[in-house]
Design brief:
By secondary structure, this protein is an alpha+beta fold. The chain has one helix at residues 3-13, and strands spanning 19-22, 25-28, 31-37, 48-52.
Length: 61
């Protein structure tokens, strides 16, 4: 299973229907999340981690 598919599963399991993908970036409520593999090894870990990306380039903040 691809990371993207896992991320999609995770989001749907959380009951979030309002999301989309932009290439390999997950977009929820206008917020972009990088999809990363998680290797924490926790038994209940689904192997995927979403990292919030800045909405704007840092230089504009
Ligand atoms: Zn993990």
């Amino acid at each position: 299973m691809t990371l993207k598919a896992r991320a999609q599963e995770k989001v749907e399991r959380a009951g979030i229907a309002n999301y989309s993908f932009d290439q390999d970036v997950l977009v929820m409520c206008g917020v972009r999340y990088a999809i990363e593999a998680c290797e924490c090894g926790e038994p209940d870990c689904d192997g995927v981690r979403l990292r919030k990306k800045s909405a704007f380039p840092r230089i504009l903040q």
